[in-house]
Write a structure and sequence with these properties.
InterPro entries: HPF/YfiA_ribosome-assoc, HPF_long/plastid, RHF-like, RHF/RaiA, Ribosom_S30AE_C, Ribosom_S30AE_C_sf. By secondary structure, the chain is α+β, with helices and mostly antiparallel strands. It has helices at 14-30, 72-100, 146-156; strands at 2-7, 35-45, 48-57, 62-69, 107-115, 133-144, 160-165, 172-176, 182-185. A hairpin with a 4-residue loop joins strand 3 and strand 4.
């Protein structure tokens, strides 16, 4: 497995890198996953250290966790504990998913845009209805079943996931509703 361990404007020593590889490897081995690579980024936010980890599994799914603490090792340990909890929760489904799937998850390229927030008063009319694009990035849209999409959204800790439904054309969306349930938008079933 490839590890990419880095720090945003902080120095990451060899000892911390060894600790990350050992502990994260133990978490992933415990659940029998076959990760391809892990990206762990440390940063500082005020007086706290922040650790963000993304692990790409061979099935094409990603597990993601982040944590904060006043010490850098404690931040990583809390992040690894969250990753452990996510993988434990989805262990059976991840294993069942991998048995059914003979090929890794297929990914399609797409453009992703970040739009500027509106800076006008609520009483004023906006000058234009066209939002200002402040960033453009490449993103990947996975081909998944609805169950896999919900699991991927939960593993990533994301509020929404856009995916291509297996065996169908077009894109689908799953999202976390305000009432705690999961919503699913399926354009193929529109009447």
């Amino acid at each position: 497995m490839r590890y990419q361990i880095s720090g945003k404007q902080i120095d990451i020593g060899e000892s911390l890198q060894t600790h990350v590889k050992t502990e994260l490897g133990a978490v992933l081995d415990k659940y029998g996953q076959r990760p391809t690579d892990a990206n762990v980024v440390f940063s500082k936010s005020g007086a706290e250290y922040v650790c963000e980890a993304v692990v790409h599994l061979s099935s094409g799914l990603n597990a993601q966790a982040s944590a904060k603490a006043h010490e850098i090792y404690a931040a990583f340990d809390a992040c690894a504990e969250k990753m452990d909890k996510q993988l434990r929760r989805y262990k059976r489904r991840l294993k069942d998913h991998h048995k059914e799937r003979t090929e890794p998850v297929e990914l399609f390229g797409a453009s992703q845009y970040i739009l500027a927030a509106s800076e006008h008063d609520e009483d004023q009319e906006p000058e234009t209805l066209q939002p200002m694009i402040i960033a453009e990035m490449e993103t990947k849209i996975p081909t998944l079943t609805v169950g896999e999409a919900v699991m991927q959204m939960e593993l990533a800790g994301a509020p929404v996931l856009v995916f291509h439904k297996e065996g169908k054309n077009g894109v689908n969306v799953v999202y976390r509703r305000a009432d705690g349930n999961i919503g699913w938008v399926d354009p193929d079933n529109a009447k």
